[in-house]
Inverse folding.
């Protein structure tokens, strides 16, 4: 039996998982809004709310030595969301969310080949299961001319970019509070996305009916979802918190079926199950 505090935090973590799972479905309600615009307002709105909360409850000043690292992380976070929301517009939600959860695969590859760390056999088995499952999901229909293939690749790219954010965050986050770190991270991401939009001549405007869905993206997957996980890691084992995001493709797929009638094919069910099992095994066996 978990202590009362840990039970409470675990409930918060589960609520956070539900919040994160709305990241893709909510974007489907704004089909006329560009992927860059969705990503920009998600980051800009989240940053604005966090800066407002920091004004009410001061967090102190950020050490100047951390600006460069967080700004680089912000650029890669912007790339992550730009690719992810492009994937949501091109591929089924089940595919987009599954391929977008593969960041632990790339951080593990970084640890093995850059940091030269010896990895437990369980982590290596999990790595190959995760990759093998992703291959099953894509199948033999690898055609750049098809939107689903391109969407899968965009989601995979979003995982690569998120792995960089996680690697930088692991170095910076231990000495900075959650609010201070995320308010700067989201701000740099929003600025980057704004620059991308201007260079690409993408309109950052949106209609009044779209506003509620964009606000939902700020509140549910970002402030409730990601911040709940950042809060929980202080009280629960990192392996527990690290495994929770792997439930996102499952819940997002269920939401896509309920809201949009998206039916999941056997290749996605089988391959997705293999990939998620590999990711959990990888996380649990990580030192």
């Amino acid at each position: 039996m978990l202590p009362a505090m840990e039970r409470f935090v675990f409930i918060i973590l589960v609520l956070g998982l539900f919040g994160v799972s709305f990241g893709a479905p909510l974007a489907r309600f704004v089909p006329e809004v560009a992927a860059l615009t969705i990503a920009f307002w998600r980051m800009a709105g989240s940053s604005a709310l966090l800066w407002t909360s920091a004004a009410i409850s001061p967090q102190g000043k950020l050490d100047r030595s951390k600006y460069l690292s967080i700004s680089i992380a912000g650029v890669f976070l912007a790339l992550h969301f730009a690719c992810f929301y492009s994937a949501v517009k091109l591929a089924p939600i089940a595919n987009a969310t599954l391929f977008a959860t593969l960041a632990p695969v790339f951080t593990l590859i970084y640890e093995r080949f850059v940091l030269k760390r010896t990895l437990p056999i369980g982590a290596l088995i999990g790595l190959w299961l995760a990759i093998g499952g992703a291959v099953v999901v894509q199948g033999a229909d690898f055609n750049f001319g098809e939107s689903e293939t391109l969407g899968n690749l965009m989601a995979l790219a979003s995982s690569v970019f998120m792995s960089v954010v996680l690697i930088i965050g692991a170095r910076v986050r231990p000495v900075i509070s959650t609010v201070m770190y995320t308010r700067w991270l989201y701000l740099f991401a929003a600025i980057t996305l704004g620059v991308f939009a201007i260079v690409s001549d993408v309109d950052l405007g949106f209609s009044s009916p779209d506003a509620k869905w964009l606000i939902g993206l700020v509140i549910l997957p970002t402030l409730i979802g990601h911040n709940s996980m950042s809060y929980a890691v202080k009280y629960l084992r990192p392996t527990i918190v690290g495994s929770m995001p792997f439930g996102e493709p499952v819940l997002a797929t269920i939401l896509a079926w309920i809201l949009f009638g998206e039916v999941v094919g056997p290749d996605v069910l089988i391959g997705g199950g293999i990939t998620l099992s590999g990711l959990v095994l990888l996380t649990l066996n990580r030192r």
The chain is about 75% helix and 0% strand. Residues 133 and 273 are 7 Å apart (CA to CA).
